[in-house]
Amino acid sequence: MNEQDKLHISAYLDGELESRENTRIKSLLLKDAEAEQYYQQLSHQKRALKQMMNRVLEEPLPESLNLPPARQTSWKPILPMVVSLAAMLLFGIFIGWQVKPPVLMHQQQAFGAHLVYASEVRHPVEVDASQEGHLVTWLSKRLGQSFQAPDLARFGFELLGGRLLAQSSEPAAQLMYERSDGVRLSLYLSISTDGQAPSAFHFGQKDLLNAFFWSSDALQFALVGPFEQSLLLDMAHASYQQLMI
Amino acid sequence: MANWDAIVCELPAMRRYARGLVHDKGLADDLVQSSAERAFHKWHLFQSQKKLRPWLFRILHNLYIDYLRQNSVLESLHESFDHVADPCPPGWMTSDLTVALMKIKPAYREVLLLADVEEFSYQEIGIILGVPKGTVMSRLSRAREAMRELLKEYRHQSDRVRTLL
User: Fold this and answer.
1) CA nearest A196 in B: which residue?
2) How many alpha carbons lie under 13 Å from residue B100 in its C-beta half-sphere?
3) What is B1-77's CATH number, 1.10.1740.10, 3.30.420.10, 3.40.50.80, 1.10.645.10?
4) B114 touching A, CB under 8 A?
5) Considering the entire predicted model, what is its pTM?
6) By Cβ atoms counted within 10 A, which residue in A67, A86, A116, A140 is the most buried?
């Protein structure tokens, strides 16, 4: 069985061969056990993949997917309306300054909290790492979800401690880590809003700070610091795994 | 709205395809929603003598490519998952098949899902991906070969674990 045979066995499986080639593969499968086995494996893979993905069909459609989108219209006849909408938008931005969507708010607060507290020389934390057990219990209780402070020692970071913060009217928390050269890393946690789906890692950047964001069902996380993207991603990944336990 | 109703009929299959591509449920649904909206607004571009399904999947494919371009971070993340024992967050399917599907190249994943799961013809897949039919045939064969190799490797690993126990 050569590469050409493999190619044609794959197409034979989908019924995509022309009649002459089709006949050739048919007889090849009859006389060549290796080719026959290859065909069976592909065929099995195909069925298994379909079966696995079909599970998605059993889920109910999310509400948001069922709604028809707003109709788009031509611009010219509605120009006056566009102008007044623009004015309303500016007003909206002004209002929105205070009422931000939860995810965006989480990201901005994570950067903000890092800027404010990482630069504190004497009081970077409210409760220091010598009372780690108490710190974690207390913050877990306030956030309504138990978690452990991730151990980032293998990256050279030691836990300094943490503090309780406020995000909008909900409690949030910050854990602060420090490397031997004094550079600090913070893990910011806030409560996920209802119905928010868990998400994979997202990268964010503000001035000299980099961050990775992710979320579980109950909490949203942000790992922030002035570090290279790849190092930060490794640490975010390690934190993620420890926080899931 | 007849147009919208026609699109809604295809939403479950579009979700299935999107989930196979990106695995993250929220992200997959966002892709489907954007595709459905784009299809609705660009309905005048749809030629009614043609089939609706390939046209919708072509829109979804284009949005997926945009997403890959914008999120090179996420893609590199998938590569870094290579050395991790269980790359799937809670709630995801963790079979060997899922892991293998995640590991092959996005271009392989697309053609594999379109052929094996969505059961499009090679010609339709060519239209969706914007490549000639011959490319579909060879890419699909390579994708299946890549999956077969990974699955074989996983089977060996689990056999080894079993003999250790």
Assistant:
1) B26
2) 22
3) 1.10.1740.10
4) no
5) 0.55
6) A140
